[in-house]
Amino acid sequence: MKGKVGLVIGLAAGYVLGSRAGRERYEQIKAQALKVWNLDPVQEQVGKAKEFAKSSAMALPSTLWDSAVKVTKAASSKGTPGQRLDSAIKVGKDSADDVRSAAEASAKAVKDAADEAFDEGSDAGRGGA
To answer: Which of 98, 87, 113 shows the shortest CA–CA distance to 62?
Structure first.
């Protein structure tokens, strides 16, 4: 119950303080945010993020598609229904490993890119190269 009361008090305080600041302060904050967004270092990082998304993000969907095709082929191969099921299960397990590997590689690439962007941003903020 204390958490709910605290939340209501916080929301009320935020509303009162926000309404006192008014539209003029909102416009000032918005203008400042747009200035920061349009800075060359920020736009450079945005460009890097777009390039990364184009290149690395497509690895996982293609792996998923390839895995689905393999399982479909195994399920429609010749043999008894039981043999086809066993084949599809085996290929599905192998494909799951491939998808897991691709997902881990994508996650590592995202982490590395984020770390690199953070490091570059920190260096730029300190006046470094």
So the answer is: 98
Cβ contacts of residue 118 below 8 Å, gap of 6+?
A: none
Nearest to 61 by CA among 49, 53, 51: 53
Nearest-angstrom CA–CA distance, 28 and 87: 64
Count CA within 13 A, CB hemisphere, residue 120.
13
Tell me the per-residue pLDDT of 14-38, one tens digit each, with 9 for 90 and over: 776 776 667 777 788 788 988 988 8
With tokens 């953070």, the residue in question is 118
CB within 8 A of 99, min separation 6: which ones?
Answer: 60, 63, 64, 67
pTM: 0.44
Cα–Cα distance for residue pair 92/84, rounded to 1 Å:
12
